[in-house]
Write a structure and sequence with these properties.
17 helices, alpha+beta, Rossmann fold, cytoplasm, binds glycyl-adenosine-5'-phosphate, single chain, ATP binding, about 500 residues, nucleotide-binding
Length: about 500
Amino acid sequence: MNNEAVPLHPAEAVDTFACCLLHPCHRSPQPRPMSDDLFDTIVSLSKQRGFIVQSSEIYGGLSATYDYGPMGVELKRNVKEKWWQSMVYQNDDIVGLDASIMMHPKTWDASGHTEAFNDPLIDDKASGNRYRADELIENYIRALREEGEEAHAEAVRERLVEALNAGEEMNDALHAIIMDEEIPAPESGAFDWTDVRQFNLMFETEMGPVDGQKVFLRPETAQGIFVNFHNAREPARLHVPFGVAQIGKAFRNEIVARQFVFRMREFEQMEMQYFVKPGTELDWYEQWKERRMKWHESLGIDPSNLRFHEHDQLSHYANAAVDIQYDFPIGWKELEGIHSRTDYDLSRHEEYSGKKMSYYDPWEEERYTPYVVETSTGLDRTLFMVLCDAYYEEEVKGDTRSVLQFHPEVAPVRAGIFPLTDKEGLPDIAREIEDDLNQHFNVRYDDRGSMGKRYRRQDEAGTPFCITVDFDTLDDQTVTVRDRDTMEQDRVAIDQLATYIFDQTANWEASA
Ligand code: GAP
């Protein structure tokens, strides 16, 4: 079963709608659009402002695959960089890795993906549309709650949890709920279902020109770390406890993928496997939970939009697991999983490869197979969160100001640079400032339109600082720096600009 198919909690179902109807949204000083609008707003501004667009759009798009435009790619690089710094550069017991997307097929037998990385699929015979049976039921429960049928909703939820834990009986149990509750197909309204069957989410392809070997596009990056346990540890001369971090593409043939970059068929993961001595794993698990929550907050995310969500049922190989959830416009949903995975993965790879995957502790003079604490987050989902959390609109002098209040460290453009006019050499000075500052971070020169328009453009792009070269600059070599969030302006010497921006970045806090 795909790890994400978690049964719906009563709290979750309520939150989804509370979020849409009650919650004027997050941190911003002015009310944002209600959350059901927020989803559409983020999708449309992502396209208009060059963050994210559907893949192959000119051909009508390829479902659940997305491309990052000029702004999106910078945001993505900055978030990756921040993760990498916090994992690899700031921990001398963690090293990086970049494993290939295609791995030996036995990897997936060992990991259990060939046999069990499945979602329950059901077809509407009338329309031919396919659905995830568990999601159909979750949506039905949500609808019951909206109609105030709390007891009925709770009874169906209990059946769903039972069905998802029914092992080989799962398909029949899910089908029975759909039949008993007479759940119609969402699009056609028909009640004409096939049986439920398991659908493996891995993408297959063939390697080599003739009668190629069947290989899979990896559904998670983690296995690249497990199979490289020795290759990462030995050259880096690391001893347990230590970690290996990786950022890379993963692929899942999701049955339902209509949630923008929340659920994609090709996406990027940022994963870290921390190898520990058996018996110490739950202490490490607690530490990583807290550290990962702090990291999300360090992106400038409002802490009240983040929470831990304990798993109802643990996978057979895990002895602890929690999700960090974010209050997305589609409800509280998983952003990151933190799992204590015991020695399951290393032991399975030892069994399937015949190679020893254990570790010899030279101080304790003992050999053991390390346990693993995993932190696994989706980069695209993180960006979706950053966009949702940053967006707000406010009235300024009768105009609507639309802002992306990104943390300056992740903002696609750190500073806009404007000459007040094209006279008296102001553009030349602005260009010199650009050449100096772009050694440190991404900046944008802009001389088009009124100052007001230039500020609004940068507010929409989430640029935290705007530098204006004006006539006073000619006398005193200072410029105006305008703060995106407060719209206040400081006068700063040109030769102090980089330091000023670094200081402001280090001290930045989202305005409350
Ligand atoms: N190695 C563990 C693992 O892959 P997971 O919960 O299946 O665990 C980890 O995935 C994270 O990857 C999720 O928390 C989510 O952020 C991201 N993710 C998973 N499936 C995704 C999808 N279809 N689209 C975008 N992100 C996804």
